[in-house]
């Protein structure tokens, strides 16, 4: 097999993160894709090829950066140009593999025409596959790798009869590259030839010979029984709560009950004392530091803001004239002394005062497992809360972290995990570890109670940031709109009380509902749960622009 | 006062993208205050410049910021050898002498500053200079135009309803691909095909707004990149300098944008 031995310089040195690859596939495919690492269930069962679904791409972990880039390009090519879930019909495994290879080449060619810069990374992988063959010369994987390269690179030399024939058939149809059916025809001719050449395919161990190619499950609709089992990434709650060490669960101790009204949008009126917030937790938390009114002094760089109460005198410029300085200036002038020209007054800056309450959604959905390590949404919420607290303290903000879940209107559980002025990261971490997620999301009641909790934060601006999957729900409510409208009402009330409410949501589908509840510009969705801690930090920084 | 410095002698290049010219003319005919809404670098400033030229009116522009006070708009007393004298601020100059006054990024100003425009922007068309004890009646040619970037899901700032409701609004967005390429080719003086590729990159970047990029790559950035390329800098480097490195500090978004640049340029 003639190998092309030209040196291939690496394109990038630093390796791309999952996040960066996720951005890229979205930008290329125009879809919202969920990207995850593919890890083995058991040692020895590692997946070596990416797995592509319509909304998800799983990338093998142990791959180099160039391969990842090519895998993203390849997946984007399918998403852009391949029909998904085609009927297998009478195709045998080898026919499927053949048709998949032709389809791979077809969409990669289309992609290269659209994005010429992706030719190099794709070609590199195609060549590598030929340099490191998966089987002896003339075997099925060897032929497939060579055909793929020949179809991708028209200038590549391959004297094999079958490969040359394949290229000839393919190039003859190249004007119809947009028509997948035409190329199914090419594939079936080539598969037939292989049969006559008595080339066999190893059914058990076959993997697409070029490592950036996916497992083709995107292309085909297999019968249930025939489908290969993939990974456990879809199974939720596999290890729910596995990480929480539960000593004395503070969630079981009731501290107080608070009745709240609820807004019934059908009646267009408030139902008084309709829901009950049940505060739970550790009955004797260490009180906030003695000097409650004072801000603790460990803020490193305080953010400042213009403050009219601070008047700076004797300034070079300003909106008013400093009368004392002006009088002196006139006197100096009369007596012939060089006058001091700084005669203005203006407003100075003072440290920004801001209070921030982070409200965590602790409903069952937080138990969803989001990666193969068993990390749950709750784990990420914990991480995000701790990071936010640290960031807020750093900025000189006052911060509290609370959480809620609900089990009918009689029981909206509310946990004060960390209070304003109680800036002890170690303690928050410990408290968070004892928390587990359960029940539903009665958002309105929780927002109302959070507003009550911010009652005494009078100094500076007040923000309530809700971390949630974005959907209000509870088991005693069947009308989806009811709790959503109630939450919207609660947000309006909070705003009237001077509290800005922002929601960081995990569910990208909830966009319209979020806009309805929180208003334009007051929510943000995070597509991959893993990005949550960082997104929360960004949100916190954006609040600073007010 | 002579406002000739504020007049345009040559026609500013403006490529219309819809009926905005006609709409603006109608608004001006009735001296309706206007809000131009749209993302950064999409042509709002250029549009006002063009309209001022077209209507033959002087244009006074002021970029707003958080530290701006009402005095920065209306004016203040200054001291000189003979004592104090009043100095009109840009808004007062425009109102007194009949210019179009353009307040760029008006949300950046604090709400207590923006209220000074209220009496000018309702039927009174008057500007009280409290400190001076004068009430300026707006010149018949005077019009107030402000710009505002609603931003991508940024809750940070907004206009008070009482301010907002004094304005008619024109919405801007990046032009469609062909028009944007035409603008970039014209402004940077580069080949249409290259301009089209730059626009292609920008379109991809705008898709990343859903992923945390505050704003996509603007028309302005494309013009910058085009200018660098015309100067002889390699295309990829120009794009990285004028667009990808400039637009975000997030390493992952920057990486993705670089990959898009490389993919599109080939
Ligand atoms: N329709 C257009 N016609 C001509 N030039 C345009 C047009 N749109 C954008 N441009 C180009 O884009 C550049 C940026 O536009 P402009 O400065 O008007 O943006 P802007 O919307 O005012 O941005 P900002 O909100 O940041 O002030 C202009 O200098 C011009 O080169
Ligand atoms: Mg501008």
What does this structure look like?
The complex is a heterodimer of chains A (546) and B (266). With 546 residues, chain A is of the alpha/beta class. Helices cover 36% and strands 19% of the residues of chain A. Chain A folds into three domains: 12-221, no CATH class; 261-307 and 351-543, von Willebrand factor, type A domain (Rossmann fold); 309-349, no CATH class. Chain A contains 14 helices and 16 strands. In chain A, the strands form four sheets. In chain A, strands 6-7-13-12-11-14-15-16 form an eight-stranded mixed beta sheet, with helices on both faces. In chain A, helix 1 runs parallel beside helix 2, helix 5 (140-152) packs across helix 6 (161-172) and helix 9 runs antiparallel to helix 10. Residues 1-12, 224-248 and 286-300 of chain A have low confidence and may be disordered. The termini of chain B are far apart. Chain B folds into two domains: 4-171, P-loop containing nucleotide triphosphate hydrolases (Rossmann fold); 177-265. In chain B, the strands form three sheets. Chain B has a five-stranded parallel beta sheet with strand order 2-5-8-1-9, with helices on both faces. Chain B has a two-stranded antiparallel ribbon with strand order 3-4. In chain B, strands 6-7 form a two-stranded antiparallel ribbon. Chain B is 42% helix and 17% strand. The chains are: A alpha/beta (546), B alpha/beta (266). At the A-B interface, helix 1, strand 9, helix 8, strand 16 and helix 14 of A face helix 3, strand 3, helix 8 and helix 11 of B.
